[in-house]
Design a protein that fits this description.
Blueprint lengths: L1 H33 L4 H13 L3 H34 L1
Helix pairs in contact: 1-2, 2-3
């Protein structure tokens, strides 16, 4: 009985600590969108911390990673096309 209570208490405490830490890092990242700072680095870190315990944060982080990868790929393709146009002249 006591072991079960300790186990449930540990799980609840772990979840609370992860929620507070991840939310704080995420909030700092959101503030950095307006204030100077590396918001595009801090926000995914906050989502990754929250993703340890919460499925919604893992989904948002996956969506963010796919979006960033798509934009990076589009930028590389555009630069490659511009380079080919310059070289062929």
């Amino acid at each position: 009985m006591i072991e079960r209570t300790i186990h449930l208490t540990y799980k609840a405490a772990r979840r609370i600590v992860i929620a507070v830490l991840g939310s704080t890092v995420l909030a700092i990242g959101v503030v950095m969108i307006i204030a100077p700072g590396p918001a595009l680095i801090v926000i995914p870190i906050g989502l990754a911390i929250l993703g340890i315990e919460f499925a919604w944060a893992r989904l948002w982080l996956g969506h963010l990673r796919r979006t960033i990868s798509k934009h990076i790929g589009n930028g590389r393709a555009r630069r490659a096309d511009e380079h080919r146009d310059r070289v062929s002249r």
